[in-house]
Amino acid sequence: MIYLETDRLQLRDFVPEDLQPFKEMNVDPDVRQYFPDIMSFKRSEMAFRHMQQEIDATGLGLYAVEEKKSREFIGFIGVQYMEATPMYSLDIMPCYEIGWRLIKSAWGKGYATEGARAVLDYVRPRIDLPIYSFTSIDNKRSMKVMEKLGLKQVTTFKHPLVDPRHPMSLQVLYKDVAQ
């Protein structure tokens, strides 16, 4: 199912053919530069299934992104529901996080901003929780997308799932103030 369309993108359900490029995206060290590690194929398979299950259950989630002209899977863009658990809790929870991850060949074309803007327009009237986005303090490209979307920086924090000594533990938090 296609959930959203922009001039250049389709945001849709994941299909089995997306799994291999999804796994390849998650082992690319450039794509994972601002994460504490790369994702094993097994972790990618688990994430792939979980992401589609969330979409199936709620209609909202991290959607597969296809470039219309080439019909190529280029990553994902969407929101994920975040609820505090004993292992992972932030003061902002429960909330939604808007996020994106694209294959390297799709970088620098405005796809993240284009797709995320469509997602925000789609989800704002459908949810009653705040929308946040966060990334490593060093990830200037994603921070630039957040700012283009009109999100406002609210604070920095140490990510509870990242070793506090790891350089990626310091995160910057942005909030959607247009809700």
List keywords for this structure.
179 residues; alpha+beta; eight-stranded mixed sheet; 30% strand; globular
What is the gist of this entry?
GO terms for molecular function: acyltransferase activity, transferring groups other than amino-acyl groups. This protein is 27% helix and 30% strand.
Question: How does this structure look, described?
Answer:
With about 180 residues, this protein is an alpha+beta fold. Helix content is about 25%, strand content about 30%. It contains 4 helices and 8 strands. The chain has helices at about 20-25, 40-60, 110-125, 140-150, and strands at about 1-5, 10, 60-65, 70-80, 95-100, 130-135, 150-160, 170-175. It has an 8-stranded mixed β-sheet, sandwiched between helices. Helix 1 crosses helix 2 (about 40-60). The radius of gyration is 15 Å and the shape is globular. The chain starts with a strand and ends with a strand. This is GNAT family N-acetyltransferase. Pfam families: Acetyltransf_3 (PF13302). InterPro entries: Acyl_CoA_acyltransferase (IPR016181), GNAT_dom (IPR000182), N-acetyltransferase (IPR051531).
Q: What is the residue-mean pLDDT, rounded to a whole number? A: 96
What is the helix fraction of residues, given as a range? 25-40%
Shape: globular
Strand order of the largest sheet: 1-2-3-4-5-6-8-7
Residue ranges: pLDDT <50 for 5 or more in a row?
none
- How do the SSEs run, as a string of H and E? EEHHEEEHEHEE
Biggest sheet features: 8 strands, mixed
First-to-last CA distance: 26 Å
Percentage of residues in strands: 25-35%
Give the helix tally. Answer: 4
Q: What structural category arises from helix and sheet content? A: alpha+beta
Give the strand tally. Answer: 8
As a whole number of angstroms, the C-alpha radius of gyration is: 15 Å
Organism: Macrococcus equipercicus
GO molecular function: acyltransferase activity, transferring groups other than amino-acyl groups
Protein name: GNAT family N-acetyltransferase
Domain N-acetyltransferase: 9-173
